[in-house]
Records
---
Amino acid sequence: MDDRSRALDAARRHADAFLASLPDRPVWPRATYEEMVAAFDEDLPAAGMDPAAVVDALAEIADPGINAMPGGRFFGFVIGGTLPAALAADWLCSAWDQNAGLAQVTPSAAAVEVVVEKWIVDLLGLRHGSAVGLVTGAMMANYTCLAAARNAVLGAAGWDLAAKGMTGAPPIRFVVGERTHGTIERSAKLLGFGTDEIIRVPSDDQGRMRVDGLERVLETGPGPLIVCLQAGEVHTGAFDSFPDLVGLAQEHGGWVHVDGAFGLWAAASEATRHLTAGVGLADSWTTDGHKTLNVPYDCGFAIVANRAALGSVFGVSADYLIDAAGDPIERTPEFSRRARGFAVWAALKSLGRQGVSDLVEGLAARAAQMAEGLAQIPGVTVVAEVPFTQVMLACRDDDTTRLLGQRLLDDGTAALTPGVWRGRAVQRCSVSNWATTPDDVEATLAAVRRLAAELA
Ligand SMILES: *Cc1c(COP(=O)(O)O)cnc(C)c1O
């Protein structure tokens, strides 16, 4: 066998072994960051090494510091796993090594993105004909959509932002809910909005934007307006009331953007679709591929109903690019990038419409199972309602809550991650992995029950 085949064989062997170890290995890494720096650190070797031996060395050194994130009992942050077809397609994507931006140069990569665009817009019940840019994640999707929004609302006010720039532009009211995700603020900063300029509408006790709060903000008068709503608050999974809020903002000439990093997928299942009622009338939407859809990192979707608005920011002209008009390169901030569409296509093709629905429904069902189980554990409280896939628990005081989370990581059965909800320490449990089974939930509940009893 040649070097390349031996290297690929080694990768395949290590990948299989790792994935097979997921049910049994401790979820949290056994090694610390400092230990891993020490393990990797050496002077750059003067001479090279055989590719297969490099892969063996990488797998061996990295292993203690690898988190069992793709396993069924990692519930931290909001982290999806990887569907088998998506993982394999992602390997192929690396082998093909296509630079996905230009349709004439990499026709398969570009074609697959047009097809997944159609599938996703349809599955999520969004506006027919919306453009989808395949970016690294919801952060970049928020940025991409909001850049389009900024150009569009200024354009409507007679200001050509692309030509004239920000200096002297009419002010934009940039409105968010009190519980907006940090990536909306980061996007705002990248787009030239100061954090002091951001208008924050109060949220209710589940983290949903208050309708009367938005009404009050809109009373402040006309002018360019962007309103950021949320499909899936990161702690509670709560959905803003789109039927009330979208129309209200649009009546005032606002561009409505919805961050639905994980929650927008509720629209793909009969059982949860009610949560997203009215969301399809917004102007742009963010969602992730690497969360609810379970494609490998990294993958997000910037979805914009008005293609021209997206093109006004990301349209390109460069003499050496062949004809880029309408190509993937005009839908994302990146010029060169990975052909993410292949893994998305593979995920959706392997699931089918029914499979996507079952996936979403399954995640919500496991979350409900988790919440019911936690509520029965003495000394443990489920902190908010559980409409979708996010569950939060708290113990009798903040220290005990933190300690319980730490003990669970040390124990290795499952991983929850800490947070603060309305001033109270919580442990967050996000059910986002296709591989999580009812047994995984039961095993997690058993560990929490045991550890909570020890702390009582
Ligand atoms: C995860 C998340 C983000 C950020 O997504 P990335 O994929 O990490 O860039 C933004 N908004 C919400 C609501 C999220 O859950």
Note: The two ends are 60 Å apart (CA to CA).
---
Amino acid sequence: MELSQIINELGEDREHYFNATTPPLIQSSNFSYSSVAEMARHLDHEDEIPFYTRGVNPTTDMLQQKLAALEGTEKAIVVGSGSAAMAMAVLSQVKQGDHIICVRKPYSWTNKLLDILLPRFGVETTFVDGRDPKNFEEAKQHNTRLVILESPNSWTFEMQDVPAITKWTKTHGLVTIMDNSYCSPILYNPAKDGVDIIIHSATKYISGHSDAVAGVICCNHDNYEKIFSSEFMTLGPAISPFNSWLLLRGLRTLPLRIRQSGETTMKLVEYLHNQEKVDQVFFPFHPSHEQYELARKLFKGPAGQFTITLKATDEDKIEGFCNNLNAFQLACSWGGFESLQFPAMTLYRSKNYNKTTFPPNMVRLYTGLEEFDYLKNSFDKALEMI
Ligand SMILES: *Cc1c(COP(=O)(O)O)cnc(C)c1O
């Protein structure tokens, strides 16, 4: 199905709601029936039709249909956060005594899940440099069940040769999960390269307006059944119908927003490469990135996250730069309408994150929907502080 048809039409049954062009927000926890027989029929299909909103809700279901189609998977389950999506996807595939291989430096709460929470239940993880597929083969143990990838990781953007890795996992019966938040389903569809389960922080590009926290798991029918009837219904990370409705609205402009964010980032990265006070620029779609060819092979185009290191060691100067980069709000997250900066200095000063391996002169940036000149002028001003 074509992209525009998925975004504007799929799952929308307008004659059932007064021909409204916009989807209805079914803000209801439960659904009632006119007879015992009808209620019994719905109860038996609570994984397919609305019965109780911890399971299926019509507004969320419309969103799930679109997200599955965008990722090219049979099913999608939308949940209350990206972290919940990763946790449930992982839990659904492992049992006590199993072993996981994950790319090094994954998203911080994925790291905590694998490094702290799962060992309590007898599941161990080996972290490998994912840039070389051989590292996965070397880390394999007799009890390895699962391989976790990220497309790419945030901050330094290391990527994996996904087709090469899935070719190997399939010959050994291993399951692959990929965090595809960075690319969104617009720039990359890991299922086409053989990945079994794809998760997103829908808080980021899919929502796009910095107003809703959400996650999605995209997978085949079997994994959907498995996750729905176990992790999803017992842990209960249901999204509110209102947030699903916001995400449906966000989806309408997803391709446009990504294009704008990626195009402006290309220009900013080029400009920053020519600034003498900037040391390194990390961005997968610049020829200077060591995996540039792989990025071009896997992804349809550039996204809006990039990282710089400044030619400065003095904390006051780094802080001066960040505090004066006014067009980029100091905030976590990314994928919304607004440009953002996340200085590594904040990690050093945090009790919880001070074990970071990122240098203090590193700043992660995200390009929103502002004009290039507006953002460039802000850099000009901030770089004067160094
Ligand atoms: C934000 C993020 C997550 C976690 O998603 P939440 O919606 O914040 O729970 C996972 N992976 C990546 C790459 C992220 O950027």
Note: The chain has a mean pLDDT of 97.
